[in-house]
Amino acid sequence: MNALRTLASSALLLALLMSCGQTHRTPDPLAAVTTTEEATEQLEQHLVDAELRYQERASRGDTLSLHYKELQLFLPGEVAGFVREGEPQGESVNMGSVSYSTCEQRYRRGNQHLKVQLVDYNGANALYAGATALMGLGSQENDEQLMQSCDLGMPGVRGYETLQKKEHHATVALGVGDRFFVSVESTQQQDTRLVKEIARQLNLTRLAEL
């Protein structure tokens, strides 16, 4: 359990560092400690759940991530109002006990750019923990960005949404089935409605079942 808590703390620290630099206010040290402790406990439980799901898959002999070509089948071929830019990109990585695959597709509508990315972290739970550490842990807002947890109303799916206010850049990032990381991001946005709408059009239910 100590090893699990260390992993949870490390994943949370990495995620927090990645989100830093957006505010100049001096934080309350006591509040920060309390919040971090609560967040670590939540993340620790997510790690337990993810490990149980992995062991369930391993018992069926499913210990490797999908090949990136297979993962690309979950990318949307068309997005209403957008045209696809080039072919989907992707790769599969197998290094010892670490296995993951990633793919993405870019789209365009005038000067507006959209990207959909999928990552299969089967066999790489630590990487999955780092990618999803901030999901379901509340919200943060300042003059430059809004970041908060979001619920698309789908079983096995949790996530957070981010709006870079000055850049008008919106992102929704999702953890699916304690295995997949899904990201939809777009430029020229005043809110996160578009990226969440596109995320709902993906076959997330099927991914959560794998």
Rg calc: 17 Å
What's the end-to-end separation, in Å? 27 Å
Total helical elements: 6
Helix content: 25-40%
Number of domains: 1
User: Uncertain spans, ≥5 residues at pLDDT below 50?
Assistant: 1-34
Strand order of the largest sheet: 1-2-3-8-7-6-5-4
| Order of SSEs | HHHEEEHEEEEEHH
Q: List how many beta strands DSSP finds.
A: 8
The portion of residues forming beta strands comes to: 25-35%
Find the structural class using helix and strand composition: alpha+beta
Instruction: Please tell me the overall pLDDT.
Output: 82
Sheet having the most strands:
8 strands, antiparallel
* Overall spatial form: globular
Brief rundown of the structure:
By secondary structure, the protein is an alpha+beta fold.
Kindly describe this structure:
A hairpin with a 2-residue loop joins strand 2 (98-109) and strand 3 (112-120). This protein has one domain. Helix content is 35%, strand content 31%. It has 210 residues and is an alpha+beta fold. An eight-stranded antiparallel beta sheet has the order 1-2-3-8-7-6-5-4. Helix 1 (2-19) packs across helix 2 (29-58) and helix 1 (2-19) packs across helix 4. It has six helices and eight strands. It has helices at 2-19, 29-58, 68-71, 125-131, 193-201, 204-209; strands spanning 83-95, 98-109, 112-120, 139-141, 145-150, 157-164, 169-176, 180-186.
